[in-house]
Amino acid sequence: MNWKGVINVLSVVILICSLAIGLSGIVSILSDDNHRISIILITYSILLIIFSSIMFYLSKGKKHELRTREGFLIVSLCWFSIIIVGAMPFYIVEKMRFIDCLFETASGFSTTGASIIDSNLILRNGEKLGGLSTISKGILFWRSMTHWLGGMGIIVLSIAILPYLGIGGKKLYEAEVSSASSSQLAPRITDTAKMLWGVYILMSITQTILLMIGGMSLFDAWCHTCGTIATGGFSTSPYSISAFDSFYIEVIIIVFMFLGCSNFVLHHNALKKGLKVYWNDEEFRSNLIVSLLCGIGLTFIIYGKNWVDAANRHIDSSNIFSAGRYAFFQVVSIKSTTGFCTADFDSWPDIAKLILLMLMLIGGCAGSTTGGIKHVRIILLAKYSVMQIKRTLFPHSLSNVTLNGVRVEATTLHKVLTFFFIYFAITAISALILCTQPGNDLITSVSAAISCIGSIGPAFAKLGPLCTYSWMSDLSKSILIFLMVLGRLEIFTLAVIFLPSFWKN
């Protein structure tokens, strides 16, 4: 094992986190935060910079090509390290229990958006937090930055801004990003990383400006942009997007949530070749069609029913436009695994909740910031099933599975099948364990497992859009933390390090 290479990359990732925490300290100074908070954040940032610099210096040496094994280990270690590092501001400033700090940070970096912050959260001193409105702006900014950094992936960011990581960078990239989009890699992996982050930053700036035009402050606009582009879902308000009660803001967020759940390579190609590249992509078409059909279906399902928005205000759903406004927002939010809410969808009819649960499982596209199974895997599984049915009738047929006109290798299909089995097996086992914990009913446990492994955030029953995860047991939170990281790393990256053969030379 190339431990020097592992530590070298790990030090760079921690350095990036430390700079973001330092920026949060500057935001704290510019806002009305207590000076103590600003000092803590900046001091912690400086200490991390010193620590990571020492790690980087001690691990310097002759650069060797990273093997696949090192790539998997680096990515796994980096994600657990940044969760621990990123949890400390919550621990020191807000005096939250460490398990709660880990949960909130893991939810942020994995872009899940499941939160434990509410007025009932018990702090280390036995007092209650007071709710999201009592959190300092410096911490809220850092909370949103965990989304933004985790969305595209800190490993990819490292490769983009530090060319020396280009040696062996392909292994890191493949371990970080969904393998389904690996065929779209640029000849040099550094160029791919720069391209992805270039598109990511451009979209982030554009959305921030558009939200500010809609009346948001720069602070709120950036924080909600982080939650949108990264498909995370953290808001600065306990009422999520419904706090702004703006149709314009909702439309902007819908558009960018959908862009966030699409392949970022497509966005880059669209800027160069035109919008036709979107429709030419099989996965994008599938994503668009499913979103439109579910949005239309939900509109008619909730039309005329009695329910409330995320701010607990009664909605006049006798207006078809109003029903469509809330239906399409929740469809795109859930399908993109963002988790922003404008409505209490847990009060919708069961058929509506079933549709949303299905969308939770599907998720977005490969090469995006979303979680879930991904459309490309659904498409490949469907085509593979049809092919097998045809072979039952014509055993000697030579039909192949194709994607965008390109033949898909059998090894890829086997990997997809394996992913499905492991994904549902882990979800089922986790749900069963959650059911044993106090306060967890079946619907809550199952939807929580699906939500966290799919990086969605809100669930159903006791974890609906108006609820948080604060009341759950420490064991439940620990399981969900693991599911969030596992889902973010697409299972294989993390699972492989638990194999005994992984550690053999």
Give a verbal description of the structure.
Strands 1-2 form a two-stranded antiparallel sheet. Helices cover 62% and strands 1% of the residues. The longest helix is centred in the first third of the chain and has 28 residues, at 3-30. It has a domain at 3-190. The protein is mainly α and 505 residues long. The model has no long low-confidence stretch (mean pLDDT 89).
Q: Output the helix-strand order.
A: HHHHHHHHHHHHHHHHEEHHHH
Q: Please, what is the average pLDDT?
A: 89
From the alpha-carbon coordinates, what is the Rg to the nearest angstrom?
22 Å
In one word, what is the shape? globular
Low-confidence segments, ≥5 residues, pLDDT <50?
none
Largest sheet: 2 strands, antiparallel
Short description:
With 505 residues, this protein is an all-alpha fold.
